[in-house]
Amino acid sequence: MTCERCNGLFIPVSFVGGDDVVGSWEFDGLKCLNCGHITDPLLKKNRARLAQNDASHYSGSSGAMKAGPGTLNAAQFP
User: Fold this and answer.
1) Would you tell me how many other CB atoms lie within 10 Å of the CB of residue 32?
2) Could you tell me the residue ranges of all domains in the chain?
3) Complete edge-to-edge strand list for the sheet that includes strand 23-32
4) DSSP 3-state of 1
5) Which of 28, 49, 72, 75 has its CA 20 to 30 A from that of 10?
6) Residue 68 and residue 34: Cα distance in Å, rounded?
């Protein structure tokens, strides 16, 4: 596998952390040997969802952002 940032080589790594008070955690992921970028399936899923949400905030071909609920516009300022 290649890194999406630098096209370097990803290697599988198990990450472990935490302590007894808070609790420990462990996950398997990938780490780039060149730039140190770390990723795992959950990070990829969340990044894809974020990109999809960002894209849905833009309207059609104009690229203008849609105003969401509670959005202020310049006409509302004195």
Assistant:
1) 20
2) 1-18+25-56
3) 10-19, 23-32, 38-39
4) coil
5) 49
6) 41
